[in-house]
Specification:
This protein is mainly alpha-helical. The protein has helices at about 1-20, 20-25, 40-60, 65-90, 90-95, 95-110, 120-140, 150-175, 180-210, 220-230, 235-260, 265-275, 285-300, 360-370, 375-380, 385-390, 395-410, 415-440, 445-455, 460-475, 480-500, 505-515, 520-535; strands spanning about 310-315, 325-330, 340-345.
């Protein structure tokens, strides 16, 4: 039966990679590296029909045991996510940001990752660049539904930033190679096509859809996504309340901790800490030093198995900075033999934004993105033999693990008092994300009101709050995933400790969780609980 699930996973990946070749590059399957998406309304409809048929075949599988059941259910959840994107969110029809970032994103994957000789990657990049003008023409035809003005403005900015990235990065990279002339000409043409796309958005597209369209997918669609994709029975309203409860709990914890630091107001103390930050030139070196310190600590304290893979700290590409306010991690593909990850740090748009990169915040951010967070997580999962477990990517597990590791480092005494206050404040932001995600997508909260709440509750600088909330409007159920996934993992760890008693070890627990890949945490908990209960029922070995 495991073979049946693996075969269906392979069919699913082939369908996705055939339709979206950039996804193939992201996953480390390189047979499509020279292609851009060739999308039309008819092709997207065909993709949706084939996905729906595949999902029915997956859910019809009868598993032999709980291990196979969670693999089946994780695959069904991944297919449901792709279906909901096409049926409900419809990004290629209503969000121009998707098309505006697609070309630079597809090129970035080829030039940022050193998975093949440079000239081979440049040859594929040239093919993608040459296909860009036609791709953007097709994208115009697909954008046939009303668009939120915020998304259009973000797309215009992203297209301009993407054009600068193509025009300024590829020529120097190709200099001295046999592809230099071809790359330069293709990059100039693709950059011009992006600028024309931005102009079209501000002119014809804006004229066609002059009214500001809502970005919310609606409470019913949000509930369906929670159920089918993330495997929760909890409703959006119930999650919103969980967010509010967590906000209250964390605000109290922050107030108590600020008292230990000699302050009565946690936000005033945090504001004071934000005055101590690296300058613009010292920003990346500060994160690099912390990454190295964490790497040493995590393996010295035996918190997880070392995946023996490098992580490189680099600035976030400019065209992505409007939706990446702090930092992000670009992993190696799960099917790549080359396993170096990239820890991106976003230089702020103004001097005030450096305050959100205070020395006190850097430890928790680096734990989340590096060790024992995403870098350790993803490079470990990329080595799992199971095709299904390497391929499935649940945001609730991925981001839940990242936030879980922030708290883990507090639990094992890594932070000083200043860093602990900052870490609690960052957890408060993730609690706020739960509420904002649910309320923005139900239509109960406007963008401006959400920005104001991010500033007042989480004490973000306004520029950071705007980029944060802008991302939330485009990614329903992604913002809630951090703290919700973290809480699931914390509950699972507590239950495992209770079952195993003195035999419990953090490293074994973490390795065990990661052995299930990035499937939804509720499925991981189901499998681990069943295995533990079966082990407890097993008679002792008299030998």
């Amino acid at each position: 039966m495991a073979d049946a699930v693996a075969q269906l996973t392979s069919e699913y990946l082939d369908l996705v990679f055939e339709t979206f070749p950039t996804a193939a590059t992201m996953f480390g399957r390189h047979e499509h590296d020279g292609r851009l998406e060739d999308l039309t309304a008819e092709r997207l409809d065909d993709f949706t029909r084939r996905l729906d048929g595949l999902r029915h075949r997956v859910t019809a599988v009868t598993p032999a045991d709980e291990e196979e059941a969670v693999d089946r259910d994780a695959l069904a959840a991944a297919i449901s996510e792709a279906l909901l994107a096409e049926e409900v969110e419809r990004p290629w029809h209503r969000n121009p940001f998707e098309a505006a970032t697609a070309v630079p994103g597809a090129i970035l994957l080829l030039v940022a990752r050193d998975f093949a000789p440079l000239e081979q990657r440049l040859a594929d990049a040239a093919e993608r660049l040459e296909a860009a003008p036609a791709f953007l023409e097709r994208a115009r035809a697909l954008l046939d539904e009303p668009c939120p003005a915020l998304w259009r403005q973000m797309a215009i900015g992203a297209a301009g930033g993407g054009a600068e990235f193509l025009a300024g990065t590829l020529g120097p990279l190709a200099a001295g190679t046999g592809l230099a002339g071809r790359i330069e000409a293709a990059a100039v043409s693709a950059a011009q096509a992006l600028r024309e796309f931005a102009g079209w958005l501000g002119d014809e597209h804006a004229g066609r859809f002059p009214d500001d369209a809502p970005f919310a997918i609606g409470e019913a669609a949000q509930a369906r996504k929670l159920r089918e994709v993330h495997c929760f029975d909890t409703t959006p309203a119930e999650f919103a309340q969980i967010g509010e409860d967590q906000i209250a709990e964390l605000t109290a914890a922050l107030t108590e901790h600020a008292g230990k630091l000699g302050g009565s107001d946690w936000s005033a103390k945090l504001d004071e800490l934000k005055n101590d930050h690296p300058d613009a030139d010292g920003l990346l070196p500060a994160y690099q030093r912390e990454l190295e310190r964490l790497e040493s600590f995590v393996f010295r304290e035996d918190l997880a198995t070392n995946p023996e893979a490098a992580a490189r700290v680099e600035p976030t590409p400019e065209f992505l900075r409007p939706v990446m306010g702090f930092a992000a991690y670009l992993p190696a593909g799960p099917f790549d033999t080359w396993q170096q990850g990239y820890f991106w740090v976003t230089p702020p748009p103004d001097q005030a934004g450096l305050r959100d990169h205070a020395h006190a915040t850097i430890p928790a951010v680096t734990a989340h993105e590096g060790y024992p967070g995403h870098h350790l997580q993803m490079t470990s999962v990329n080595r799992i033999p199971s095709l299904t477990r390497r391929a499935i990517r649940s945001a609730v597990m991925i981001e839940g693990w990242g936030l879980y590791t922030e708290q883990l480092m507090a639990d094992v005494g890594y932070y000083d008092d200043d860093a602990r206050l900052a870490q609690l404040a960052m957890r408060l932001l993730r609690a706020l994300r739960i509420s904002l995600d649910m309320e923005l997508q139900s239509g109960d909260l406007t963008y401006e009101a959400a920005v104001a709440r991010a500033v007042s509750v989480a004490r973000l600088e306004e520029s950071t709050a705007r980029s944060e909330v802008a991302r939330y409007t485009m990614t329903p159920t992604q913002p809630f995933s951090y703290l919700v996934g973290c809480l699931e993992l914390e509950r699972l760890r507590a239950a495992s400790q209770a079952r195993l008693g003195d035999a419990f070890r953090l490293r074994r627990f973490h390795d065990r969780v990661l052995s299930y890949g990035h499937m939804p945490p509720t499925l991981v908990a189901r499998a681990i609980t069943a295995a533990d209960e079966a082990e407890q029922r097993r008679p002792p070995d008299d030998g």
